Amino acid sequence: MRITRTAPGRARKSVVLATTALTACALVLTGCSDDSGSSDKASDGSITLTVADYGQFGYKEAKLFAEYHKLHPNITVKEDTTANEADYYPKLLQQLNSNSGLGDVVGVEVGRVKEVTDTQADKFVDLSKSVDVDDWVSWKEKQATTKDGAVIGAGTDIGPMSLCYRRDLFEQAGLPDDRETVARAVAGGWEDYIKLGQEYKKKAPKGTYFMDSASAMFNAVVSSNAEQYYDKSGKAIYKDSASVKQGWNLAAEVADKKLSQGLAQFQDPWTNALRKGTIATVACPAWMAAQISTNSGDAFKGKWDIAKAPGDTAANWGGSFLSVPKGGKHVKEATALVKWLTAPEQQAKTFKAVGIFPSNKKAYDLADVKSATLPYFNNAPIGEIYAAEAQAIPEAVLGAKDASIKDEISKQINNMEQRGTKPDDAWKAAAQTIDKSIG
To answer: At what angle do helices 331-341 and 64-71 cross, to 10 degrees?
Structure first.
C-alpha cells in the first residue's frame, strides 16, 4: 500500500535522498472547490490543471510541472496533496459520488484500484486510446482495466521488493555484512530471514532489534504471491489463502521469538526508532528507501545497505495510477498531461529525484534508472536490483477491499507483538472486523 512518503533530492547520476520528511511539509487538504479542481479557461486561453494525489508522487521534486509549463506555456499544473492515503481515498469516493471537488487528474492507490475499476469506471476517461499499455510491466495496467477493456488509470510507480539492512549492526552481531552474502543467507525465503534473525539476536547490539515489524514481513510474504486476499471471481478468500496463512504463521513466530521491535510502520515510534538506530532490517519495497534515509538521518548514511529480497519469488508492495475524471473542465488537456507524466523519460526523472521505481518498463534502459545507485545505502545498485525484480513479479489477483483486509491483519499482528495477544485470538479479531467491513 502506498503511504506517506518523504521528499528526497538528487545529485549527479545517483539517487540521493534528502532529510526532510514529506509529512513535515505536505498539506493535508480538508476541502476542495464546489465544482472541480481546475479553473476555467482565462481570456488569454491559459488554464490550470489540478493534480490531486497523496503521499509523494515526486513530480514537484523532479520539477516536472515546471517543465510541462515550459512545453505548454498556456497550462499551469497545480498539485493538491493529501499527506495520508487513508485520508485521501474516502474524500475521493465522496467527490466521485457527488461529481464535485475532483481534480483534473487524480491518483489511485493499487490497494484501491480494483474497487474503483469495478464500481467507478464510468466516471473516468478510458486511457487505452491515449497511452500504450504495452509500455508497462504486463501486470500493471491489467490492475486498472475493466472487463470491457477500458483502462481507467495510467501506471505511475511500483514497489519491487528488497531487503534493507544495517551493515554495522550485522557486523557487530557477527553476521556477514556484504549484500551478496546477505542475499545468499536468505535465499531460501522468509523462513531463512527468521533464522538469520535468531542468529542476530544471539549477539545483537544492546537495544537493537532484528526487524521493525512482523506485519511488514507479512505484507512482503503475501505480496510475493499471485493469490492474496481474493480469487479471480471476486470472492474474498483471505481465510484460506496459502500466502496469508504463510505470512500470518511467520509473523506469529516472529512475535513469539521477539525478533522485532513491534512497531507499526510510519507512526512516530517507528520513525523515532530509525532515528535512534535500533532497527537492523526492514522489508524494503523500492519506495521504502526514502523513508529509511529521511528518518534515520545523516548519522547512519553509508551504514545501511540493500540486498535482494528473501526467496526466489519476486514481490510487489505498493504503486499507484493517474486517472482523469470525465467531469473535469479540461479532460483533453488532463489526458495529455497523464500520458506525459507516465512516459518513460518522466518516470526516470521521478526515480532519479525521489527513488520511486517506474512501472513503465521502457524506463529501465534509460541511464537514470539502469545505472542508479543509492549513496545513502552504501551505493547499492538499486536500478539493477529493482529492474530485475520488477520484471519477475507475478500477476496478483486484486480485490475490492485488499487495503482494508491488509490493514486489519497488520493491526492484529502488531497486537501480537506489542500486547502479547495470542495468535488465535488475534486472528479471530481480525476476521471479525474484516467480515463486517467487506459484507
So the answer is: 120
State how far the Cα of 127 lies from the Cα of 335, in Å rounded to an integer. 8
In sequence order, the 6+-apart residues with CB closer than 8 A to the CB of 326 are 122, 123, 124, 125
Helix (H) or strand (E) holding 166: strand 154-166
Which has the closest alpha carbon to 162: 140, 193, 136?
193
DSSP 223-281: HTSS-SSB-TTS-B-TTT-HHHHHHHHHHHHHHHHT-B----TTSHHHHHHHHHT-EEE
Q: Check residue 40 and give its pLDDT.
A: 61
In contact, 361 and 389? CB cutoff 8 Å: no
Q: What pTM value is reported for the model? A: 0.81
Q: Report helix, strand or coil for 156.
A: strand
Distance CA 318, CA 287 (A): 8
Tracing cell 530509525 back to the chain, one arrives at: 274
Given its phi and psi angles, is residue 75 left (phi above 0), alpha (psi -120 to 50 degrees) or beta? beta
* pLDDT tens digits along 76-105: 999 999 988 989 999 999 999 999 999 999
In angstroms, the CA 263 to CA 213 distance is 5
The pLDDT tens digits of the residues spanning 321-342 come to 999 999 999 999 999 999 999 9
All residues at 6 or more sequence positions from 21 whose CB lies less than 8 Å from its CB, including other chains: 6, 7, 271, 294, 295
Q: How far is Cα 353 from Cα 356, in angstroms, rounded to an integer?
A: 8
Q: Are 223 and 315 in contact (CB under 8 A)?
A: yes
Rounded Cα–Cα distance for residues 245 and 250 (Å): 9
Q: Where are the alpha helices (DSSP H) in 26-137?
A: 64-71, 85-98, 110-119
Max CA distance (Å), the chain: 72
- CA 163 to each of CA 243, 247, 281, 283, 329: distance values in angstroms, whole numbers, following the listed order: 19, 16, 7, 5, 44
In this structure, which long-range contacts are made by residues 254-257, counting pairs with CB atoms below 8 Å and at least 24 apart in sequence? 254/194, 254/197, 254/211, 254/214, 254/217, 254/417, 255/214, 255/413, 255/416, 255/417, 255/423, 257/194, 257/197, 257/198, 257/201
